[in-house]
Amino acid sequence: MTNESHTSSLNTDDSWSRCPVCFEDYSLSHRPTTFVCGHSTCIDHTSGINRLRECPICRYPLNQQHEYNVSYSLEEASCLYRSIKNTAGYSTIEFPSEHIGSSHIKIMNPDDIYARQLQEKFN
């Protein structure tokens, strides 16, 4: 039995941090709201003459009388994700599997990723 640390990569598909209607990143100018079905869009798409009548992802009917609120957690997570992602030279975020659920995060730069791939190839 080895004492190696196993890691699982964070999915780098960042579509969760972007509105599926206008494709803008969630931010203070494009604030997210979350529907009963669990999907999200910019809150601006829930009011006015062009408001959504159904979820753009799953087509769940939206209550036209409901007043939607900003999903502050999603907004903050999206901003934090972009901040980490935009850190110069870093592209992969990994969580050691024994620490999933804790705040332990390892950020790898492309050189480290390439070195790891070479090691795996020759071992």
UniProtKB/TrEMBL annotation:
Which keywords accompany this UniProt record? Metal-binding, Zinc, Zinc-finger
Q: Where is the RING-type domain?
A: 19-59
Q: Which GO MF terms does the UniProt record name?
A: zinc ion binding
Tagged with keyword Cytoplasm:
no
- Pfam families, alphabetized: zf-RING_5
Q: What is this protein called?
A: RING-type domain-containing protein
